[in-house]
Amino acid sequence: MAGYQLSVCAEMVFLDLPLIERVARIHELGFGVEIWGWADKDIDALAATGARFTSMTGYLSGNLTDDEEIAQLLQSAEASLAVAARLNCPVLNLHGTGLNDIGLPVKPVQVVTGAMWLKAADTLRRVAQLGERAGRVFTLENLNLPVDHPGTPFALAADTLALVEAVNSPALKMNLDLYHAQIGEGNLIALIGRCGKAIGEVQVADVPGRQQPGTGEINYRAIARALQEAGYQGTVAMEGWASGDSTAALQQFREHFTV
């Protein structure tokens, strides 16, 4: 029996329902629940669903490299920790830079300099200190540049791994998104082995189309076996669209990760 737990992003399935009803439906089906930004959500109503929240976005604005933007990121990370406490959500997710409402960087970056790497590592140390004090974990998610997030710095899984290892804190881990990694890097099973204990969460969707596992080119049954063999005990979250009926899509997700 796999040691990991399955979760589903409520932002991308049951789209005909209001968000609170999506959360309740996912919970009824036996999955954990993930959400993105919290500023436009009724936190008390979310908490009242009784759902097990596994991850949420851990900032509202800002980035890792510009002083004014760093201040915004740290301030909104603290506010996000307060919301996470209300939802009993253990993990808060970050990106290499602030993203707008369609997933594009607010400030696109074409060349990442050495100074930017050093500043990002320092900012993430400060974020990790916030997480340590609150008893929660921030994760840094890899993204893909060719399809969804052009202009995002620190986008590759290799980049997020380097930053997480540089900070070396139990309160900062990788959110290893295998959909993004397949587009940006490939060789997913070797990537899982290389990232190892730096992984704080795994997100999945298939390529192409960003739909549930089993709809595209990624052999997610082999991924599931690799995670089990690696002893991974965290969350595997479907952050993808349903190809048709959402209930059927979630069942297909579960089948591919039942090993």
Automatic annotation (TrEMBL):
Record-annotated Xylose isomerase-like TIM barrel domain positions: 45-248
Entry keyword set: Isomerase, Pyruvate
MF-aspect GO terms: isomerase activity
Active-site residues annotated for this sequence: 141, 239
Keyword Isomerase attributed: yes
Family, as annotated: Belongs to the hyi family.
Protein name: Hydroxypyruvate isomerase
